[in-house]
Amino acid sequence: MSINETEDKKPSPRPMPPRPMPQRMSGRSVLPPMSRPGGSPLPPMAGGSPGGLSGSPGGLRGRPGMGRMGKPALNLSQLGLSPKQEQTPFANFSKYVDPSGKLNFAGKAIIHADGVDFSNGNSFAIKMDDLILQEELGKGQYGTVQKVKHRVTNVTMAMKEIRLELDETKLHQILMELDILHKSSGEFIVEFYGAFFIESCVYYCMEYMDAGSLDKLYGSGVPEEVLAKIAISMVKGLKFLKDELSIIHRDVKPTNVLANIKGQVKLCDFGVSGQLEKSLAKTNIGCQSYMAPERIRAANTYSVSSDVWSLGISLVEIGVGRYPYKYDNMFAQLKAIIDDEPPSLPSDIFSPEAVDFVNSCLQKEPLKRPVYADLLEHPFIKKYENVDVDMAKWATEAFEARKN
Prior knowledge:
- The protein is an alpha+beta fold.
- The chain has two domains: 95-207, 2-Layer Sandwich (Phosphorylase Kinase, domain 1), CATH 3.30.200.20; 212-403, Transferase(Phosphotransferase) domain 1 (Transferase(Phosphotransferase), domain 1).
- Helix content is 28%, strand content 19%.
- It has eleven helices and 18 strands.
- Helix 4 (224-245) packs antiparallel against helix 6 and helix 6 (304-320) packs antiparallel against helix 8.
- The longest helix has 22 residues, at 224-245.
């Protein structure tokens, strides 16, 4: 029966007729008109059209085959699948931090609120309640360094705070530095007192070097005998890392060499250090201004000789009181490191032995640079090795000059 026939043969009005049921015809339903109480019909919805869906001008017209609603689609659980979990910055947090709040570095170290336990059996018990905060010593990209005093021992310490970044690289840097510090008992590496973990921050406590970093102490330059003692400490510290821990520092520069008013000079900041046997050394690690030419050329590996270059650049800077390359433009600076003659100590101020020592470190070809054992046998080192230099006087005066 067609729609027209239905309209021509409407039934005669009867009292209280039953509500007619929708009739399925030609793939669409014909519904009786809706009415208000009392019988008057409701006006059509705005924008609607016969056979269409309202809500937009003209609606969506019915199409053949749309008369019946399709079966609802199966959900993921009915298909035996799980909905994909949304990835968040903290998705990997549970890999490292257990429900008790302990930070676990792949079984190598466990840091908690009361200290750190290393897999080799060494443990260091220290917690925030043991410390009295005194002053901020510095601030960096990832956190701060505070001067603190240990309540129990009355020892002044430097406490480094690092906000935990949930990426493998940053976690590796934290573990690397902790691993080096707790294994380093040498007199040319800052002493480690312990570490703890609270509320997404790793704190570790180390020796407080009260004179500060050498970049703040050298002023307009240092005397040759002081430079020699600094060179001896740096070379012995780097040699210890290589020989005892199979570590290359990869970020040798005056900022990462500390002094105290006793005149001691020690290396610090091992976050980007690399293990030689695992070939972890890659480019773009450390400060570009102290990079060896082979690193700037995007070489894939980093060797001990690259640290020797950085040692040479650092000694020139400390000796003359300024970084030896122009640094107004980084591109020009890196180009100069590759193409220009290496810098040197001025021969009218420093002895031939001192000049030759630095020149040997700054050979453009890595294989021509001496190893640490050879550097310790160099005439410049031998000249001052047993000379009594008042490093405490120099450090104290340099520190006072820095404050003024």
